[in-house]
Fold this protein.
Amino acid sequence: MEKRVVITGIGAITPIGKNVKETWQGILDQKCGIDNITLFDTSTFKTKFAGEVKNYNPQDYFDLKQSKRLDRSSQFAIIAAKEAFEDSGINAENTDFNRIGVFVSSGIAGLTTIQEQCFTCFEKGHNRISPMFIPMTIANMPAGNIAIELGAKGESISIVSACASSTHAIGEAFRNIRDGFEDVIIAGGTEASICEIGIAGFENMKALTNETTDKNRASIPFDKQRSGFVMGEGAGILILEELEHAQKRGAKIYAEIVGYGATSDAYHITSPSPDGEGASRAMVRAMESANIKPEDVDYINAHGTSTHLNDLCETMAIKKAFGESANKVMVSSTKGNIGHLLGAAGGVEAIFCTKALETGKVPPTINYKEKDEECDLDIVPNEVRDADLKLVMSNSLGFGGHNASIILKKFTL
């Protein structure tokens, strides 16, 4: 018998907040966390804007030795996971830690450390490479570090599927609990790739915005003037729990996860399939998994990166998956607020969906000005919308043609 899976804790650190409360308030206030890059000198770069975590000091969270042994991506992951874990109320008295898993992903994890150590190698010699280089940079280490920090001894994995990574992690965690393998899974994603090599790589493939003067017009999903995405950083972590386990310990239940679908475009290493066919099938699979119809979905948190192709193809994908209901469902992108957190995007956006269900507030697509006739869905422009939400979807689409969709439901017995 399939078990029900609920969300009992949430944690985040983002360009608009150091925790969930600040981050969600930033969404409600239509706050834009995009600004000039401060993490390195951009004088020789075309790209000037990113979504950095503001005023971040590792020693506010870690002692000096620990902070030097953790890449920024692992730091963010631990901070968000500890918030979510504390929020959940899980402890050794009410939960078997041998049945707590960690499914936390990243697109590339330790990119900043890789860059730093490569500079060290070429400038000072290979003997000066840190012995912590490998454990700081490999993509499984955010998950591993969370498991160590919290004592979670169940299955611990990291799914790497570019910008779909953390939605895949949440979806696979959902299946794992549904099928009875774990009682609790710490799930989500983290990313910290705002460095010279990260920006240069995306800049040279012409994926980043060409806006250099107005931060409010840099990440503008579905707007006709969009010119590329803005890189963000941070982490979003959720505590997924088997319903009866949560009820037995009297946990607060934010929402229920009821559906998950994943597909591949099998088309191109960076471009989505032109008609949105792959993303459409992921949404259909998610709805079939949840045993719902398109007209049942009230809101979609779109991948909505602010690149021309993504927003166009995702619009076509939604129309293909939802048919006549595509014009009725609310669709917004929160990447105008925080930029594109790459492998962490789905984790943070799942939290936005959770808070939307809890509060009845639909996140808007901020800084929207010029309508694109090709992106003609109800994108909830510029203002928070009150709505009685019962079912919401979150989409993530990654380079390589990786597509993932999850469906969250307002919790009822």
